[in-house]
Q: What sequence folds into this?
C-alpha cells in the first residue's frame, strides 16, 4: 500500500471541451478511489468555471489533427459547434455527464476547485464571475501549498 | 489469493480485498469489513447503499459507479462521500462482498 497515490493536484490550462474532460475524469476517478483532489483552473482552463462560458465549451475543430478535419474546413463557421454537438451526443450515450453536472459532482465528492489569481487578474474576473463550486481564487504559491505531499498533473 | 476471516468464516478475497465469491458473503460480515476500512459503525444510510450495490450486482452482474449510485440509490453524491470517504462505490462494493465496479466515470 506504500506506493498508493493519496493526493493529486490537477492543473487545467485549456478551455476546449477535449482539454477539460480528461482532467475532470481524472479528478472524479481519483475521488472515487479515495484520493484527495484539488483542481486548479488557470489561463483558458478558467473557461470551465466561468459561469458565462462553462455550459458552452467547444471542441477545437482547427489545429486538432486527431479530429481528421481539414484545417480550412474546420475553420468554417459552425463546424466547431457541429463537432461539439456530435461529441456531446456520444458522451450522453455513454452516460458521461455534461461539464456543469460533472463539476458539481466532483465538488460534491469533496474535491476543491480553485481559480488562478494571475489569470483572473489578466481576464478581469472576480469570484462572482466563477461558478458557486469554486472555493477560492488562489496564487500559484497557494497552489503549491495545497498540492504539497501529492502528485501534480498538468493538463 | 489471500484468505481472511469475517464473522468467524474464512473467505477468499483478491489482492485489493474484494470477495472472490460473492455467494460467500453474509450480512453479519459487513460490520467487520467496514471496520477494516475505517468505518466504525454502519448506519441505516450505509446499509441502504450496501444493499443497493449488492442487489444491482446480483441483478445485472455489475455494480454501479458513484455517479449512477448517486442517481439511483436514494443517497446523493455528497452524502455518499460522507458515508464512505475513501470512495463510495469501491468501499460499498467491498463491504457488500461483490466485485469492484468497473468504469471510469
A:
Amino acid at each position: 500500500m506504500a506506493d498508493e497515490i493519496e493526493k493529486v493536484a490537477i492543473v487545467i490550462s485549456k478551455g476546449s471541451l477535449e482539454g477539460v474532460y480528461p482532467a475532470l475524469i481524472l479528478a472524479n476517478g481519483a475521488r472515487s478511489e479515495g484520493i484527495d483532489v484539488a483542481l486548479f483552473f488557470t489561463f483558458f482552463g478558467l473557461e470551465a468555471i466561468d459561469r458565462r462560458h462553462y455550459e458552452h465549451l467547444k471542441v477545437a475543430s482547427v489545429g486538432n489533427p486527431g479530429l481528421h478535419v481539414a484545417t480550412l474546413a474546420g475553420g468554417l463557421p459552425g463546424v466547431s459547434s457541429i463537432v461539439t454537438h456530435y461529441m456531446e451526443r456520444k458522451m450522453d450515450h455513454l452516460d458521461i455527464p455534461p461539464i456543469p453536472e460533472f463539476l458539481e459532482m466532483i465538488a460534491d465528492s469533496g474535491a476543491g476547485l480553485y481559480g488562478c489569481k494571475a489569470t483572473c487578474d489578466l481576464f478581469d474576473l472576480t469570484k462572482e464571475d466563477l461558478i458557486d463550486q469554486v472555493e477560492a481564487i488562489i496564487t500559484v504559491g497557494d497552489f503549491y501549498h495545497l498540492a504539497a505531499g501529492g502528485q501534480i498533473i498538468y493538463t | 489469493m489471500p484468505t481472511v476471516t469475517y464473522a468467524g468464516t474464512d473467505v477468499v478475497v483478491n489482492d485489493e480485498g474484494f470477495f472472490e465469491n460473492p455467494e460467500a458473503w453474509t450480512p453479519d460480515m459487513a460490520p467487520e469489513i467496514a471496520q477494516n476500512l475505517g468505518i466504525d459503525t454502519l448506519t441505516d444510510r450505509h446499509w441502504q447503499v450496501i444493499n443497493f450495490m449488492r442487489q444491482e450486482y446480483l441483478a445485472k452482474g455489475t455494480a454501479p459507479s458513484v455517479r449512477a449510485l448517486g442517481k439511483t440509490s436514494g443517497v446523493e453524491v455528497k452524502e455518499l462521500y460522507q458515508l464512505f470517504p475513501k470512495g463510495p462505490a469501491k468501499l460499498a462494493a467491498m463491504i457488500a462482498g461483490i466485485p469492484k465496479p468497473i468504469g471510469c466515470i
Notes: Residues 7-55+98-154 of chain A form a domain with the Hypothetical Protein Ychn; Chain: A, fold (CATH 3.40.1260.10). Chain A touches chain B through 14 residues (CB under 8 Å). Chain A has a mean pLDDT of 96.
